[in-house]
Amino acid sequence: MSVADRSTFKRRLDSLGVIVTEGTESECGELIDEAAGDPAVGVELDAGSLPDRIETDPTTAEFRAAHTGVTDASLGVAAYGSVAIEADAAGTEPVSLFVDRHVVVLREADLVPDMPDAFEWLGPKARDESVDVVFATGPSATADMGGLVHGAHGPKEVHVVLLREGDAGGRDSVSSEVAADE
């Protein structure tokens, strides 16, 4: 991942109305806690940790009542501002789709420049592991029924927690104004 990929990813997310918060893996729980509304459900993360208040084994009622779903992404595609969400036994896909706000955790090292690079990553996983992946790009939106409606087929809001490697640099919250400047 290059600095250009990171800047492109953040600019693309900004154009989609997605908030990006950056920090290190050790800050992940705090970053999620600030981004997630209540009630929140999630899945165990590969990077970082979830705050204790995030329910990882929700009942059907808790899942239906959840405002926020927290997952990690296997991959980010800079040119599109997309994240790859794997369908797995932990329930990552539904946790990312059936809530009003999706908080997605992505390692900066898992960011690729474009779709050809994403398909290079996806090909072996799909062939060898039979993995299903959803590429999510910003909040859900449709204009099928007239005017643009957000949240018709997925979350109304998306917040990306982008984890940098190492502990250098401290935390950086990026709103739409800051992301556009990079």
Model description:
This protein is α/β, with parallel strands linked by helices and 182 residues long. Helices cover 30% and strands 29% of the residues. It is built from six helices and twelve strands. It has helices at residues 3-15, 28-35, 60-65, 92-97, 115-129, 176-181, and strands spanning 19-24, 40-42, 68-72, 75-77, 82-87, 101-107, 111-112, 132-137, 141-142, 149-150, 157-164, 172-174. The strands form three sheets. Strands 2-3-6-11-1-12 form a six-stranded mixed β-sheet, sandwiched between helices. The longest helix has 15 residues, at 115-129. The two termini are 16 Å apart.
Q: What order do the helices and strands come in, and which of them pair?
A:
Elements: H1 3-15, E1 19-24, H2 28-35, E2 40-42, H3 60-65, E3 68-72, E4 75-77, E5 82-87, H4 92-97, E6 101-107, E7 111-112, H5 115-129, E8 132-137, E9 141-142, E10 149-150, E11 157-164, E12 172-174, H6 176-181
Parallel strand pairs: 1-11, 2-3, 3-6, 4-7, 6-11
Antiparallel strand pairs: 1-12, 4-5, 5-8, 9-10
What attributes characterize this protein structure?
alpha/beta; six-stranded mixed beta sheet; 12 strands; 30% helix
